[in-house]
Amino acid sequence: MAQDSSLGAVGWARSFPISSGVRAARDWTRKHLITLGWDRTAPDLVDSVVLAVSELVTNAHAHAGTDAQLILTWDEKCLHVTVHDASTRLPRQRHADDSALGGRGLLLVDALADGWQVRRCPRGKDVIACFQPPPSTHAS
After folding, report:
1. How do the residues of the chain divide into helix, strand and coil, expressed in percent and rounded to 5?
2. What is the 3-class SS of 6-56, one letter each residue?
3. pLDDT grade for 134, boundaries at 50, 70 and 90
4. Which pLDDT score, from 0 to 100, does residue 1 have?
5. Rounded distance, CA 46 to CA 87, Å?
6. Domain ranges of the chain
7. Is the N or C terminus of the chain more exposed, i.e. has fewer CB atoms within 10 Å?
8. Could you tell me which of 108, 51, 56, 52 has the C-alpha nearest to residue 85?
9. Is residue 70 within 8 Å of 21, Cβ to Cβ?
């Protein structure tokens, strides 16, 4: 794809109902990261983004009990991964003990992303994670 220097950002959005599962969100995300050429230039980053998407969409489905709206925005500095759900209850990092089967999703996102935040919205909340590619990584 030709690089358009006048384009400041590119983005994609899709809703993932609870019934479609998180696999569809992972596959959809990977497809869009491939369009940026990151599968060739930053494959480890692609895996990190896909894992974070999996955790955030799972949280929306399991904890909020709602569909998840996933938005990917690339502004040439950071890939913003936003997952919106309809619950007003804010997520919090838990410190699960070694025997717990869950409770590590936000810890993973914190470890994988360059930063993340939660923002209240009129109809729920957004969890936003930022991923910065290595300096040599360019959208193709």
Report:
1. 35, 25, 35
2. CCCCEEEEEEECHHHHHHHHHHHHHHHHHHCCHHHHCHHHHHHHHHHHHHH
3. confident
4. 46
5. 28
6. 14-131
7. N
8. 56
9. no
What's the token pair of residue 75? 């502004």
Distance CA 35, CA 14 (A): 16
Structure tokens at 140: 């193709």
Best CATH choice for the domain 14-131 from the list 3.30.565.10, 3.30.930.10, 3.40.50.980, 1.20.120.1760: 3.30.565.10
* C-alpha distances in Å from residue 48, one per residue of 42, 44, 117: 10, 6, 17
Residue 10: beta bridge partners? 74
**Separation of alpha carbons 18 and 64, rounded Å:** 10
* C-alpha span between 125 and 64 (Å, rounded): 10
124: amino acid identity, one letter: G
**Residues 89-105: tens digit of each pLDDT:** 887 665 655 554 555 67
